[in-house]
């Protein structure tokens, strides 16, 4: 049994595919690629596939990771080649690495995620700078999401204005992404008084605890 | 609403701003594996293929999958898909002024040359009007101009095209594999001439299988009865004969693989078209004659290619009666040896009630997962003879015992109430039979045994021997259902039934004439959409619409039709003659059965009409004798 870690981008239409549905996308992609998946035992055998960190619906990413267990050993470049033509549009396979099967589950090693929100429409950077300061100065920000109260503030590790090399303006956020302590970029935008549907949000970095645990 | 000022880019930009506000936004963006995206500006004929329900249901439709692959194989044609938005998305599209668009390139539907709509069942009619309206296309065909797409419908519900006639420019009656290309070519040739739309219609009317409703005029008697439907142009034949392919072409294999969960996630391979059994209620069994089979090797190769190109984990083998596929044993054996180590689920539905079916399924799956489905349809000998599906209760019970004995935990039984001449006793017999089955289940495997009973309600469908029969009244249906509900309150038994209001609506829509169109329009205007959804009970809206249009729905469905009565669907010929259907209807009244066509020819009419098209190739031979001499079409 061999464990491969695939790094990929999630762009375009497939940003509207949920984390749960993405498991099926990877399973079918591997089957189309002819990669021999490892299945669990039992009445309903499931392929062994692990996604690193759920990406909220509608957000693109250039830093996604999936771990896939295969029965055979493959050359890393071969795996990338095989997958490239088998994944749906919007998934761009970057590279693969071979990982020890004993390593901890990828999702337990993620600490934080960095997001960039760009606004194709009007953008008032002065007012936003003030709002960012006021959010960062607070000790607690109690918000309600799906009828549950939670404190958003400790999930925000960094928040700043952003200007892309192309001259687009926006906001950069560094949010906690530990299991059970995950900050959502749309919640941060709402707290800043911005309608998240006006933003194009991209995940640009996953910060991992390299030693695991 | 500024619905027509949109292009592909502006639609995409607007979508990104609204999609997070709706349930399952993945329905509205396309981007599936195997979707075909062509350069819009490099293709001369652009066709939108629409299924008038939501993505989750429409994506897996086999008819559209076939046409999508055939059309996109042509260099000069592109085909893109269109589905109906769910209500949340519809209201956003209307408030934001987003027109209905294709998933592949997000072009407005109104920018296409041809809009092809599939209508497999009648409860999609109001959604079809909504589809046109959301596209900014006038719903009444008479209001369209040369700037609008050609709107054409096909599918099983079009075998009675009259209720939707005022909304369609043309219908394709029957099988589309070859005709769709002729329609596209005819359109392309017309487009280059710059002639009027009516000229296009006249040319289309000369294509085998095409019905152009504006070239026909229904004639009503003084008392309001439909007297005839006459062709008003020399280009339009007196009656339109359904289209037929002589030999089934290889099936589609590059199925679209959605990136979100939908209703049917599977590869579907049609192994055989048509059926020789002659069940008298069965629309599909009458309109799909004659039988044509695919060769075993072609099916196995198609499964292999489809698995490779989709990565799907489930394959469904489709036919009206799998047990009747001549090479079923060989097919199952080949599938087993070739695919058994692939973690695949293979479904083989529509099996006969005999223990041999168990062998087939065991051989195919090697496991007894899921239930075992049988469709006795009726529970007394009298009713079984009436509907021409003879099978003894003893045999059913013996097979049921064997199913439980061999380890299947669930049996699913399909019945139908409301057949002509059905009495309370016949209904009670259904429940009695089910109780006997679950008793056997308990004997064989104790409390784990389960029985799922599905009881549909009969609707007298056009082009069947029962087309003269009346549908039960809503009160009769409900009385019969309450008998079943009461008698089947038993441990291990689960009962499903069809809401009586759904049956009423289906019977009106299936049997109406051209006057029904205004009722459909009115009901749609008053909010009836998604009529196929069990939760949308619009019966009051429909009854009000009938009242407003001054039409009595009972005239369509609640009376036994006269022997000589002209039906709206008589303008369509399926090849099966009205004489044969009438003979079958009379036989049903006397509970006389008619044998399988393969035993002896019952002269249904298929041979004289289509005989000269019969293939001589062995593997695709029709189960009809090939005559020496046949009359021309």
In short:
The complex is a heterodimer of chains A (213) and B (633). Chain A is α+β, with helices and mostly antiparallel strands and 213 residues long.
Feature tags:
heterodimer, A: 213 residues, alpha+beta, Pseudouridine synthase, nine-stranded mixed sheet, two-stranded antiparallel ribbon, 11 strands, elongated, B: 633 residues, alpha/beta, pyruvate-formate lyase- activating enzyme, six-stranded mixed sheet, four-stranded parallel sheet, 21 helices, disordered C terminus
Radius of gyration of chain B: 24 Å
Ends apart, CA distance between termini of chain A: 22 Å
Beta-strand content of chain A: 35-45%
* Oligomerization category of the chains in this entry: heterodimer
Low-confidence runs of chain A: none
What order do the SSEs of chain A take from the amino end to the carboxyl end, as H and E? EHEEHEEHEEEEEHE
Number of helices of chain A: 4
Q: Could you please say which CATH topology of the largest domain in chain B applies here?
A: pyruvate-formate lyase- activating enzyme
Determine the structural class of chain B based on helices, strands and strand pairing: alpha/beta
Major sheet of chain B: order of its strands? 2-1-3-4-5-6
Domains of chain A, number: 2
Q: What's the overall geometry of chain B?
A: globular
Report the count of strand segments of chain B: 19
Using only CA atoms, what is the Rg of chain A? Answer: 19 Å
CATH class of the largest domain in chain B: Alpha Beta
Could you list the spans of chain B in which at least 5 consecutive residues all have pLDDT below 50?
A: 627-633
Give the name of the CATH superfamily of the largest domain in chain B.
tm_1862 like domain
Average predicted confidence as pLDDT of chain B: 94
């Amino acid at each position: 049994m061999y464990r491969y870690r695939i790094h990929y981008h999630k762009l375009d239409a497939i940003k509207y595919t949920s984390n749960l549905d993405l498991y099926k996308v990877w399973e079918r992609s591997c089957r189309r690629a002819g990669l021999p998946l490892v299945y669990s035992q039992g009445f309903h055998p499931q392929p062994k596939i692990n996604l690193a960190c759920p990406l909220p619906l509608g957000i693109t990413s250039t830093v996604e990771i999936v771990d896939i267990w295969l029965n055979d050993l493959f050359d890393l470049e071969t795996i990338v080649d095989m997958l490239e033509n088998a994944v749906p549009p919007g998934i761009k396979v970057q590279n693969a690495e071979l990982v020890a099967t004993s390593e901890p589950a990828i999702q337990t090693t993620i600490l934080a995620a960095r997001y960039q929100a760009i606004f194709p429409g009007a953008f008032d950077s002065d007012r936003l700078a003030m709002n960012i300061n006021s959010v960062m100065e607070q000790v607690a920000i109690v918000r309600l999401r799906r009828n549950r109260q939670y404190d958003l503030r400790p999930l925000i590790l960094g928040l700043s204005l952003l200007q892309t090399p192309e001259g687009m303006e926006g906001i950069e956020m560094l949010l906690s992404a530990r299991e059970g302590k995950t900050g959502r970029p749309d919640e941060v935008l709402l707290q800043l008084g911005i309608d998240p549907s006006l933003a194009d949000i991209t995940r640009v970095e996953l910060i991992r605890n390299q030693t695991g645990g | 609403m500024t619905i027509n000022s949109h292009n592909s880019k502006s639609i995409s930009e607007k979508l990104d701003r609204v999609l997070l506000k709706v349930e399952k936004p993945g329905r509205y963006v396309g981007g599936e594996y195997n979707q075909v995206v062509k350069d819009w500006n490099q293709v001369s004929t652009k066709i939108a293929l629409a299924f008038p329900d939501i993505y989750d249901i429409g994506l897996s439709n086999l008819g559209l999958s076939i046409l999508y692959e055939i059309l996109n194989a042509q260099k000069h044609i592109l085909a893109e898909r269109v589905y109906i938005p769910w209500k949340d998305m519809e209201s956003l599209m209307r408030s934001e002024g987003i027109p209905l668009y294709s998933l592949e390139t997000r072009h407005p539907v109104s920018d296409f040359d041809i809009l092809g709509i599939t209508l497999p069942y009648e409860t999609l009619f109001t959604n079809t009007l909504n589809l046109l309206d959301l596209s900014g296309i006038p719903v009444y065909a008479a209001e369209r101009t040369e700037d609008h797409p050609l709107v054409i419908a096909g599918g099983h519900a079009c075998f009675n095209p009259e209720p939707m006639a005022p909304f369609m420019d043309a219908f394709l009656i029957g099988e589309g594999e070859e005709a769709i290309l002729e329609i596209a070519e005819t359109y392309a040739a017309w487009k280059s001439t710059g002639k009027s739309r009516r000229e296009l219609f006249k040319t289309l009317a000369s294509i085998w299988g095409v019905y152009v409703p504006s070239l026909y005029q229904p004639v009503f008697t003084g008392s309001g009865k439909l007297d005839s439907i006459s062709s008003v142009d020399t280009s339009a034949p007196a009656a339109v004969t359904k289209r037929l392919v002589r030999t089934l072409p290889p099936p589609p294999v590059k199925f679209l693989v959605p990136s979100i969960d939908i209703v049917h996630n599977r590869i579907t391979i049609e192994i055989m078209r048509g059926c020789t059994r002659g069940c008298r209620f069965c629309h599909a069994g009458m309109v799909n004659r004659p039988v044509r089979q695919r060769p075993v090797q072609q099916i196995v190769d198609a499964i292999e290619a489809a698995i490779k190109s989709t990565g799907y984990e489930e394959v469904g083998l489709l036919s009206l009666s799998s047990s009747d596929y001549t090479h079923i044993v060989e097919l199952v054996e080949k599938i087993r040896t070739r695919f058994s180590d692939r973690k695949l689920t293979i479904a083989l539905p529509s099996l006969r009630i005999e223990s041999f079916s168990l062998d087939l399924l065991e051989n195919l799956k090697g496991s007894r997962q899921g239930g075992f489905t049988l469709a006795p349809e009726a529970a007394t000998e009298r009713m079984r003879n009436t509907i021409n599906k003879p099978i003894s209760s003893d045999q059913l019970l013996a097979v049921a015992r064997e199913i439980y004995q061999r380890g299947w935990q669930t049996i699913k039984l399909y019945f139908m109430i409301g057949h002509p001449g059905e009495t309370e006793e016949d209904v009670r017999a259904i429940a009695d039979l089910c109780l006997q089955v679950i008793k056997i289940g308990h004997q064989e495997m104790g409390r784990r045994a389960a029985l799922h009973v599905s009881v549909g309600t009969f609707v007298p469908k056009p082009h069947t021997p029962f087309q003269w029969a009346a549908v039960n009244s809503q009160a009769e249906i409900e009385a019969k259902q309450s008998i079943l509900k009461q008698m089947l309150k038993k441990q291990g038994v689960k009962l499903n039934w069809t809401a009586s209001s759904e049956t009423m609506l289906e019977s009106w829509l299936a049997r109406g004439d051209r006057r029904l169109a205004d009722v459909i329009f009115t009901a749609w205007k008053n909010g009836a959409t998604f009529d196929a959804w069990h939760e949308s009970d619009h019966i009051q809206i429909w009854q009000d619409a009938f009242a407003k249009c001054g039409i009595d729905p009972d005239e369509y469905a609640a009376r036994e039709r006269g022997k000589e009565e002209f039906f709206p669907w008589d303008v369509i010929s399926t090849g099966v003659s009205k004489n044969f259907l009438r003979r079958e209807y009379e036989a049903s009244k006397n509970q006389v059965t008619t044998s399988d066509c393969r035993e002896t020819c019952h002269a249904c009419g298929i041979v004289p009409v289509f005989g000269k098209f019969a293939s001589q190739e062995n593997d695709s031979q029709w189960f009809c004798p090939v005559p020496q001499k046949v009359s021309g079409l």
